[in-house]
Amino acid sequence: AYIHSIQQIVTIDDAGRCQLWKIDSSSSPPVLVNCEQKGRNHNDDIVGKGRPCQISVSPDGSMFAFLATDRQIRIFNVSTGKLYRRYDESLQFYKTAFESGKLKWCTTDRFEKMLQSEADLEKTPYFGMQRVQFDSSSRILLFPSPFGIKSVDLETNKPIATFGRNEAVRFISPCLRQEGARLESDVTLELLASDN
């Protein structure tokens, strides 16, 4: 993912290595930025965990985030390379919440169907296509969960809402229509989608 504000690219490979690459000019190859911070490699927060899915960069370029196949959402500070926040969306998290009565709105039948659905999802390529998205303020993060799309205020670290919790579908890749784009009467959806 490209971070325009600092002209760097963040990459994460299947082994979990996170690297920042500085782009000096369009004619020279990217240069690897030093990943060490005070004697500690920031990759320690990723290595050995699930394979990262698609990377999202905040609009202000201060953070990047991803959902990994271990069902953890990780948000990193670009300037330090350190883990800023982590959210657990693992099935164990949901099992514990259900057993302790924190999911009062969820019936036993629905919960068991969700577990089966999630097991089936893990066997498909769509599981690795999950992504998170920042809003235009870079303060709110949206991400898919077994029960809808969650939104979290990253500044306060508090949940805002869960969208589609009662829907009978599994959301994979939320997309947020942000402010600033107006629909004119002569503009078609095809023209908007063409990025012209």
TL;DR of this structure?
This protein has helices at 91-99, 108-121, 189-193; strands spanning 2-3, 8-12, 18-22, 31-32, 36-37, 40-41, 56-57, 63-67, 72-77, 83-88, 133-134, 140-145, 148-153, 158-163.
Describe what you observe in this structure.
- The radius of gyration is 19 Å and the shape is globular.
- It is α+β, with helices and mostly antiparallel strands and 196 residues long.
- The relative contact order is 0.11.
- The chain is built from three helices and 14 strands.
- Helix content is 14%, strand content 29%.
- A four-stranded antiparallel beta sheet has the order 1-2-3-4, with no helix packed on it.
Report the β-strand fraction as a percent range.
25-35%
The end-to-end span amounts to 21 Å
The whole-angstrom Rg is 19 Å
* Uncertain spans: 34-45
What is the β-strand count? 14
Residue-averaged pLDDT = 81
Q: Bin the helical content.
A: 10-25%
What would you call the shape? globular
Main structural class: alpha+beta
Instruction: Order the strands across the largest sheet as they lie in space.
Output: 1-2-3-4
Q: With helices defined by DSSP (H or I, 4 residues minimum), what is the helix count?
A: 3
Oligomerization status of the protein chains: single chain
Order of helices and strands: EEEEEEEEEEHHEEEEH
Query: What profile does the largest beta sheet have?
Result: 4 strands, antiparallel
